[in-house]
Description:
The complex is a heterodimer. Chain A is 42% helix and 22% strand. Chain A is an alpha+beta fold. In chain A, strands 1, 2, 3, 6, 7, 8 and 9 form a 7-stranded antiparallel sheet that branches. A 5-stranded antiparallel sheet of chain A has the order 11-10-14-13-12. In chain A, a hairpin with a 7-residue loop joins β12 (283-288) and β13 (296-304). By secondary structure, chain B is of the alpha/beta class. In chain B, 43% of the residues lie in helices and 17% in strands. Chain B has 14 helices and 10 strands. Chain B has helices at 2-18, 37-44, 47-50, 66-71, 82-90, 136-145, 160-163, 174-183, 212-217, 219-238, 240-253, 260-274, 289-300, 312-315, and strands at 22-28, 53-59, 77-80, 95-100, 107-112, 127-130, 151-154, 169-173, 191-195, 207-211. In chain B, the strands form 3 sheets. In chain B, strands 2-1-3-10-4 form a 5-stranded mixed sheet, sandwiched between helices. A 3-stranded antiparallel sheet of chain B has the order 8-5-9. In chain B, α6 links the parallel β6 and β7. The mean pLDDT of chain B is 88. Chain A binds chain B through residues 151-159, 161-163, 166-167, 171, 173-174, 176-177, 179-181, 240-243, 253-260, 263-264, 271, 274-275, 278, and chain B through 61-65, 68-69, 72, 132, 153-154, 156-158, 160-161, 163-164, 166, 182-185, 255-259, 261-262.
Amino acid sequence: MTLGDFRSGISLRWRLLILIMLTSGLILCAVIFYNADFARQALEKSLKERAAETASHAAAAVDSRIRIVARAVEMAAVDNSLSRRAYLGVGGESPNRAAMRSLRQLLVTNPEIYGGTIAIDPSVDGFAEGFSPYMCRTKTDGFREENLAREDYNYAAADWYLVPRELNRPLWSEPMYDEGGGDALMVTYSVPFRFEGSKRAAADGKADGVQTGDITLEWLDALLLDLPLGTNDYAFLVSRFGTIIAHPRKDWVMSETLFSLAESFGDQKVKAWAREVLSGNSGMEQTSNLFGYSGDAWIAYEPVPSAGWTMVAVLSLDEANTQIHSLVMTEIQIGLLGLLVLLTSVVLITDTITRPLRKLTQATKQMTRGNLDAPLPPHKGGDEVADLTRSFAAMRNELKTYMANLQATAISKERLESELRIASDIQHSFLPEKLPNHPKCDLAAIFEPAREVGGDIYDVRLDEANERLYLVIGDVSGKGVPAAMFMALTCWLWRHFTRECDRPEDILRSLNKELAPDNNSCYFITMFCVVVELRTGHMRYASAGHFPQALHCANGEDVWLASELEIKPCLPLGLDGNAEYRGRSRQLNKSDLLVLFTDGVCEAENDGREQYGEESIWAPISEEGLTSAQALDRLRHSVNTHVAGAEPSDDLTLLAFRYVGDAEAVNDRAGNIVEWRPASTYSTGKMLDWLERISSGWNLTADDSSDLGLVLDEALQNSIKHGKADFARVTLRRADGEIGIEIIDDGFSFNPLSVPIPDLDVPLEERKAGGLGVYLIRRLTLRQEWKRTNGVNVFTLAKKLGG
Amino acid sequence: MHRTIAVIIAALVSAALAAGAEKVHILMPWTPQAQFVGYYLALDRGEYSRRGLDVTIHHINPRSDLEKTFEQGGYEFVVCSPDNALVIRDGGVPLRLILQVVQRSNLAVVCWKDKGIETPADLDGRRVSAWPGIFRPYVNVFYRFNGANPIYLPQAHSLALFLNRSVDACVAMVYNELYMLYSHGVDENEITVFNLAEFGADFPEDGLYASNTFIREKPEVCAAMAEATKAGWIIARDSPEEAIDAVMQRVKNAMIPANRLHQQFMLKTLVPSIFPERAKGGTPWILDPGIFAKIAYSMTTVKQLKNPVPSYEEFTWETSR
């Protein structure tokens, strides 16, 4: 979990709580740590000072006391040196009594002294049996007398006697249990003395005797106990050679030395330290677990100079540690209490902040469920939360207004859409519900309006009686309902005029005349109208401002119908009531495919604003054997592929017609047929070439052939020049000495036989133009017949051969 | 556990036998310490009582002489070194050796290294301390054999003279005084230690003696005493911890300062000198005649004896030969 997750996953209240508590906790820890460290240092410093003071104080106390004893013993020794005669019994008093009197005086005047003796060496004259009367205190404050010069107490070999005498200087003995003497644990101060004028002493340089004074060690315990020490602190006293003289562990007294203890506890470091302690210097050291006493401690040592002993004070750090521990615990308790108070305050504060927020959240949730009237928390005061609540209330009001507007808009839109649906329904009702069915035609249509209602129009009507098919496709300017209404009107009118007119240009003209006068809104419509004689495959078409339409011929030829090359551009319908429209004819062969379309196809754009284009139409529809429906499907698929899902910008309308008529029926009678398509390609020369081939085949005479040429040329020139025919076909038929001639054209309905016979007597320049050709035709043929049928002129002639 | 039960049974047996047992007293030449643990264990483990002996062990006051204490009477047996025994015998009590316990010397002469002493000969003319009575013949032999003629000062019970550097050398029992030196912070590097055993003065030490009169009266008691004492020392060798417990118990009762570590060291040092390795010579429990001759010689160096040194046969008994 990253910090971000942590932040996002935990509520504001908890984040505040955790942050504040963590920070406060850290600060608290730092304070406690600093305090503890500071207190530890202060305590350690004071402990060190106290240790040094204690050792120094105790050492001074011991020193002063034994110094007093030493002085007294030294004074007694001086007395002894003057008392030889007394000890020899010269004064009447027994030597023993004299010595005892001296000793009693020593003890009486020096309460610190436990006992003492005056020992005289056996080598001194008069003391060969030895002399060492001893006096010490009893437990009942009395005095006890002993004689140390006895069989079982060889005083001359005792340390207290031998060593100072040998060293010839006063000496504190090592502590000892004087069995048979003082019978107490004590130390003895021995001062060698010489009798005044002693020759013996002068001879060997050794003292004549030794004056001693003992002090027991019990008072040391009391002294050590009185030291101002803590419960875990203690002090002890060691002799010159490290023997424990006084120690809280009584069993160590006299039994152990610093070195034997170090050995016992396997502590080699202490050995080195012990030598330092016994060096006679004072010092200080920190140690742990000294001689089995657990815990850290400061040790201070101070010499007791008069006896050569050392006082050692051991001050435990445990107590300091306990104090610090207790301090830390108190601080922690106070700190925790503080944290608790802080926690409560933070909870209360965060609650006052987050409660309105939570209410706001609940209100928001209700609002998202659509309840815009959910109550908002009260927003008193001027804090951020109140601001937020106010803003929120304002936002809600805005939202409510917006919702109300939206609802109104939605209602009006719904109404509009409903109207559009109705318009669409109306529009669709004008489009052919079902394409007519006829064996000679294969029809298919696609109508995809860009909006609910489109501006495109297409229609098909079959005149079953005359086997005539009317096709129309158009595009109304503008889109939407008005265009649809205009289109509906156009549709209705087109249907009407297909019943009245045979030729597409006539239909267009009539439509235009109806639409233009009341067209105040200046709507116009481009239209392409086709009329097909299903029986003959003759097709005529006209365009009102519509772009060229595609005809894919069965022989592979692709033709643009009503291109600018074919027809002068004509105005769309509805603009000018007097506009003229031209039609063109074409003979359809079996399987020719006519595809009518609007600009929704060729101007279909993809996202790159590239148009589909007109020439792209050929590829999808050119495949052999396609039905109209298949061709349209392929074309639409090709267009869809091109736009690749882009929003269609215009209606897409397609109408396909494939002529599946029986073309053989025409061809069977036409081994001698010639066609000019377009008729403008006609030339007299071509016609004569064709006629010559037929004449030679039929063995016609030159006169007959020449007459035929004249007749045909006159008739065709009429159709093309005057009838404005686009299409002309000539059929010759030989039978019974006659040749039947049929000339069909798609020009204006014009009966040549109605032309009056010209007055041949009037001079040529005075004659009305025309009429001569028809006259010629009448002269050179046996019969003439003309009829208008299926939008074409059929001129039938018969020529007698050989005549 | 088993041992505890054994000790209790032994105590009960000894108590039972005590009624008809031979009451004898034995005097030790020093205060209680591991030096005498074989006798303690023989008593504690019932080795004496089992043999019909009701033994009481006594220790001398360190301030007094062994000879004088023994001469005061009341002791059938005494433990001491041969030189002590010869002095006592010279004083009129015809002591005979019943058991030679310590076969080899544990004595040493200790010198301050910084006084320039590297060989015993370096001590010639130096101030040295030695105990006035005991072992003095042995110490004399050591100095003589090693070509030194030092100035002798009497050595008291403590090592104060030596520690105060009033003398250059002192006598020390390896297991006692030498150990004490170390306990007082003297470093091994500060001193040179000449073990007498290594410098031609390897004399036997503690043995068990009785007066010839008593031996003649009750030879079976003496023989039993010898056997029981042997057994006590064998126990001490084999059960050192029990041995130290026995010592510490007596030390405590006598209110004598002592520490366990020291007593352990003492026992450890003593055992090889009681049960010497065969290669180093000495046969347990008996005194070799050749060694006795050497002891006799050492005695002549002190001129303490008023009478001639007794013969080996006079000095020893059947159990110590």
